Amino acid sequence: MRRIFQNSIALMVVVIVMFLIIPVHESLLDILIIINISLSIVILMVTMTISEALEFSIFPSLLLITTLFRLGLNVSTTRSILSYDGSGEVGTAVIRTFGQLITQGNIVLGIIIFFIIVLVQFIVITKGAERVAEVAARFTLDAMPGKQMAIDADLSSGLINEQQARERRGKIQREADFYGAMDGATKIVKGDATMSLIITAINLIGGIIIGSMNGVGDLGTVAQTYSIATIGDGLVSQLPSIMISTATGMIVTRSVSDGSLNSDVIQQFARQPRAILTAGAVLVILGLIPGTPTLPLLVVGVALAVLGYLMSGRMERKEAAELVQPEAPAEADMTMAPSETDYYKDINNVYGLLTVDPIEMEFGYSLIPLVDENSGGKLISRIVIFRRQYAQEMGFVIPSIRLHDSSALGTNQYVVKIKGEEVARGEILVDYYLALEPVSPAGEIDGIETIEPAYGIPSRWILPENKEMAEIYGYTVIDPLSVMQTHLSEVVRRHAYELLGRAEVMQLVENLKKTAPELVEEAIPNVLSYANLERILRGLLKEGVPVRDLATILETAVDSLVTTKDMDMVCENIRVALSRTITRRFCEHGQLRVVTLDAEVEKRVISSLSKNEQGIYLAMGPDLMQSIVTQLADYLKKFSDLSQTPIVLTSQVIRVYLSRMLSQFYPGVYVLSFNEITSDVQIQSLGNITLDTAQTRPERKAAAV
To answer: What distance in Å separates the CA atoms of residue 671 and residue 625, rounded to the nearest whole number?
Structure first.
C-alpha cells in the first residue's frame, strides 16, 4: 500500500491517459469535472501566496498534468455529448447546469458570451503569460553571470561561507531551469486554449449532424439541445484553464516581490495614501457634475477619501516615531593633548614612524561612516568574517588591517597598501548603489558610468529609487560597503603570498605541533629550514593553492628532499600530493574547463629549458612566447563568457616554468598539470595552443624568463 501511495502521481497520469480511450460514466465524470475546477483554484491560490517562484518548482510539470487532465475530460465529455440518442438529457448534470447558467434561455447570447470568454483566455491571459515566461527565461539566463560574480564577491568578502555559496549557486541554477521549463510549459497552455475552440466547434457541428441523422428532432430543437451542452462543456473546461493561465502569469512575475501577493499589494498601496486620497476626491467631483451617476461616484469617492486620510495619518505617526532619537550622552572632558613637536622630541617616538603595516587601507572623509562602528559602519566586522573564511579556505591567517582616514585622498576615494606601498585604488559613492551591467540588459538605467574596482566590470552608480528597476532589467546591484569590501578582499587574496613572512610560518608550524609533534620534530629544522618552508608556502599561495594541510606539505617535502635539492621539484611533488585540494579549488560540478598545449608546443618549451648555478630556467624565443600569449588571449574570452577561472593544463615537467612566464602577462591565469587533477574529474578543453607556420623555423634569439 505504501509503495502504491508513493507512485500515486504516476498512476494518476496513466489513468488520465486512459480517459482518452475508455468511456467514463456520467456520475463519475461530474465528480472529475468538480475536482478539475477545485484543483485549478488551489493552484491559483498557491501562486498568489508564495514569495518566490522556486517555492512552487513543480509548477511546469503540474501544468502539463492538469492540461492533460482537462483534455482527457474534454474527450470524455465530447463522447458523452455526441453519444446522445434522444432519450433523457444530453451531457452530464454539471455540463447542463453550466450551459443553462450562461445561456439563460437565449442560445445566441450564450454562444456570444462563451466565445468572449474563450477569446479573453486565448488572446489576453494565455498570450500574456506566454510572453512574460519568455522574457523571464531570457532575463534569468542573461543575469546568471552577474549573479555568479555577486556570489563570488560575497564569498571573497567573507559575507557567506562555501556552503552558503554552493546553496546560492544551486538556487540560481534551479531558477534558470525553472524559467526555461516555464517558457516551454506556456506553449502547452496556448495549445490547450486552441484545442478548446476546436473541441467546442466539433461538439456543436458534430452534435447537430448526429442529432439530425438520429431523428432527435427538427433542426431548431437539435441546435438548441446540443448548443446548451456544448457551451456547458466548454465553460467547465475554460474556467480551470483561465485559472491555470492566470497562475502561470502570477508565478513568473514573483521575482521582484519580497512576500506573498496579498501582503505586497496591501503594503505597497498603504505606502501611497496620497494617491488613494486624490482618486477619492476626483470621484467626488465627478459625482457633483450634473448628468453623472451621482450616488455610485459619491459612495466610492468618499470611501477612498476616508481610506486615504486614515492611511496618511498612520504613515505620519510612524515617521514621527522613527524620528525620535534618544539624547546623546554628554561628552567627557578631554585633557589637552601634547603638541606634535613636543611628541617627536622623544627619539623613541620617531622610531614608531618606521613601522610598516602589512596591510593598510586609507579612505576619504565621506567613507568614514562605512568604517566607524560608532556611526554604524560594518567594514571592520566584515573584515573579521573574511579573515575567518580565508583561514578556513586557504589555511593562512590574514594579518590585521590598519584602517585610517587620509586628507590626501578625495572624499570618495580609498587606497589599499601592502607593506606601505599602494597596490589598489577605488572610488565609491556612499549614497548610491553600484549596478553591474549584464551582457544584454533589458533596458537602460540612468546612472554614472564607472568600472567595478575588483573585477573590472562596466557598471553604473544609480540612485536607491532605481535599484528595483535595475534588478528587473537584469543588473546586479551592490551596496557601496560591499563594493569596497569586495575590492579589499580581492586585493588581499592576490597579495596573500607577500603577507606570509618568517614569523607567520613559525606560527603555522607551532600550530601544527599540537597535532603532529613528531612530524615537526623530524622535518624542522633538520631536513627543511624555515626559509625553504616559507618559499614553498609562498609559491603555493601565489598560485591559489591552499596550505591548510600543512602536515601533508611537510611529509611530501621531507620525502622529496631525499632525492632532490631542487625546490621547484619539491613544490611540484607537494602539488601532486595536494591533488584533491587543487581539484576542489578549481573544479566546478565535477567538470574542469581548460586550455591545453599541443604536443609540439610542449616539446619546444622543454627544449627551451636551461640550467645554471641557480637552477633551471626557461629561455624561450620571443616568437614562440608571443604565439602562446596571443593564442591564450583569444581563449580567455571564452572563460570570461562562462564566468570560469582561466586554467591552462600541461605536463608536470614544464608547469612551474610556464606558470612563471604567463604570470607576467596574465596574473589571473592558473597553470595546472595533469598529475594534479584527480581521475574522477571530467576535463573539457576550450582550446588548444598550437604552433603556427612562423614557429617552424629555428629560433634566432632566446629570451631568458
So the answer is: 16
